[in-house]
């Protein structure tokens, strides 16, 4: 085989490796989900619907989760001064394992007028998976503390996941029937994102590329033997 043909074959092997990487990329699905909150407030029961978005970014062995509220879910009969309200919530993890992730955020950056929906700041927390596989992330209970009072808001419409993602546990622990750990107990940090996937895919791409090159070299040597 000429040098030109050998170069073309190797380039083709590399292209095929790249295609394999794209085809095997783990699926991630995000959706803005309407969550109907039933709130227990100091002035009685209230209800409100807010679209919830959950994002994940790989950080070390875990994933940083960010929960965003597109609408306020509660209000106060009196003005809340700047920094008077402190929000926190729970994200429910399903799929490869069952767990909960506490998330919290900064207090209100501006004063909130009376009888005005309170805009919840973005809440974040860390999730470290104990099992590899597909994980789902769903909005859980929201807690708002302000002026010495506590408001608890519970999703009442059984909302679906705001995020589905293939996650990798430290050490590569497998899903049910694999790995060395059981389901994470509730209220523990068992910790979303592309980095692990990118590393895994990079390794896969290298493997496919080397295999392709080896195949071309084998064919080349075989052809030379046939001609001799």
UniProtKB/TrEMBL annotation:
Q: Does the keyword Signal apply?
A: yes
Region of interest (Disordered), ranges: 152-197
Give the residue range of the signal peptide: 1-30
Q: Could you tell me which InterPro entries the record lists for this protein? A: TAT_signal
The annotated regions of Gly residues compositional bias extend over 171-182
Residue stretches of biased makeup (Low complexity): 152-161
Keywords for the protein's UniProt record, in alphabetical order:
Membrane, Signal, Transmembrane, Transmembrane helix
State if Transmembrane is listed as a keyword. yes
Where do transmembrane segments lie in this chain? 198-219
Entry-linked NCBIfam families: LPXTG_anchor
* Name of the protein this chain belongs to: Peptidase
Lineage at the top is:
Bacteria, Bacillati, Actinomycetota, Actinomycetes, Kitasatosporales
């Amino acid at each position: 085989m000429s040098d030109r043909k050998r170069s073309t074959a190797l380039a083709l092997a590399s292209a095929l490796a790249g295609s394999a990487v794209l085809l095997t990329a783990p699926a991630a699905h995000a959706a803005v989900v309407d969550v109907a909150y039933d709130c227990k407030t100091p002035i009685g029961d209230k209800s409100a619907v807010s679209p919830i978005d959950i994002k994940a970014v790989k950080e070390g062995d875990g994933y940083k989760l960010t929960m965003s509220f597109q609408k306020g879910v509660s209000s106060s009969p009196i003005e809340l001064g700047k920094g008077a309200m402190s929000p926190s919530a729970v994200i429910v993890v399903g799929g490869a394992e069952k767990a909960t992730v506490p998330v919290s955020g900064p207090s209100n950056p501006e004063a909130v007028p009376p009888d005005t929906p309170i805009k919840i700041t973005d809440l974040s927390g860390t999730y470290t998976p104990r099992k590899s596989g597909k994980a789902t992330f769903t909005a859980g209970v929201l807690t708002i503390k302000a002026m010495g009072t506590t408001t608890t808001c519970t999703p009442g419409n059984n909302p679906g996941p705001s995020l589905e993602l293939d996650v990798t546990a430290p050490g590569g622990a497998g899903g049910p029937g694999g790995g060395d750990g059981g389901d994470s107990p509730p209220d523990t940090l068992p910790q979303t994102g592309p980095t692990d996937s990118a590393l895994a895919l990079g390794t896969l791409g290298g493997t496919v590329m080397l295999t392709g090159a080896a195949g071309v070299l084998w064919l080349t040597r075989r052809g030379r033997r046939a001609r001799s």
